[in-house]
Design brief:
The complex is a heterodimer of chains A (about 120) and B (about 110).
Chain A: E1 3-5, E2 10-14, E3 19-21, E4 24-26, E5 32-39, E6 46-52, E7 60-61, E8 64-69, E9 74-79, E10 88-96, E11 104-105, E12 109-114
Parallel strand pairs in A: 2-12
Antiparallel strand pairs in A: 1-4, 3-9, 5-6, 5-10, 7-8, 8-9, 10-11, 10-12
Chain B: E1 4-7, E2 10-13, E3 19-25, E4 31-37, E5 43-49, E6 56-57, E7 64-66, E8 76-78, E9 87-94, E10 103-104, E11 108-112
Parallel strand pairs in B: 2-11
Antiparallel strand pairs in B: 1-3, 3-8, 4-5, 4-9, 5-6, 7-8, 9-10, 9-11
């Protein structure tokens, strides 16, 4: 079974600085999808960024980018120019590319942004 | 605007009672999911449904039941058999079984009193 590990329960960053959140996963599959979700205090889960394993190019969405290292099974999230609104719990998630239905989530990293 | 509506936002249940959490979507998504979130834990899958009148157990289905009589609706019943039901429950949907990711509702906080 696939597992997702987020080794940093909490992180903090100064406003306007850059922070990187770590995620590793365990799988024997070669094709899959990876996601980062944000859960602010409202608790609404919001999709931040998505990566397809067969694509070597790292995904980017505005200030959010990933460092996808397939051989190392690593999928870190970089937030540039951090803003107060970035403060949230961040979850890394894995989905197999086959007919498997589910997203497997890590336990999350709580990000604090200091003014 | 399209989205997923979960109700109620907060729910209190006495021990031994069944309670039903509502989840409605107007996104025309085929697949719907129920996840449970506990403090310090990630999200764990309870049930999912790919199409109307069909659903499958997830990782922690014991003590829960669902129905999918309409494409738009996927209610979750927490039965008295669920030993530790106090948690935050999230409903989600996807157009493609999650390949592009899920759309989530705003959740229901269930507390057993």
């Amino acid at each position: 079974a696939q597992t997702v590990t987020q080794s940093q329960p909490e992180m903090s960053v100064q406003e306007a600085e850059t922070v990187t959140l770590s995620c590793t996963y365990d799988t024997s599959e070669s094709d899959y999808y990876l996601f980062w979700y944000k859960q602010p205090p409202s608790r609404q889960m919001i999709l931040v960024i998505r990566q397809e394993a067969y694509k070597q190019q790292n995904a980017t969405e505005n200030r959010f980018s990933v460092n996808f290292q397939k051989a190392a099974k690593s999928f870190s999230l970089k937030i540039s120019d951090s803003q107060l609104g970035d403060a949230a719990m961040y979850f890394c998630a894995y989905r197999s590319a086959d007919s498997n239905y589910k997203l497997t989530f890590g336990k999350g990293t709580l990000l604090t942004v200091n003014p | 605007d399209g989205g997923i509506t979960q109700s109620p936002k907060y729910l209190f249940r006495k021990e031994g009672q069944n309670v039903t959490l509502s989840c409605e979507q107007n996104l025309n998504h085929d697949a719907m999911y129920w996840y449970r979130q506990d403090p310090g834990q990630g999200l764990r899958l309870i049930y999912y449904s790919q199409i109307v009148n069909d659903f499958q157990k997830g990782d922690i289905a014991e003590g829960y039941s669902v129905s999918r009589e309409k494409k738009e609706s996927f209610p979750l019943t927490v039965t008295s058999a669920q030993k530790n039901p106090t948690a935050f429950y999230l409903c989600a949907s996807s157009i493609d079984l999650g390949v592009l990711g899920y759309t989530f509702g705003s959740g229901t906080r269930l507390t057993v009193v």
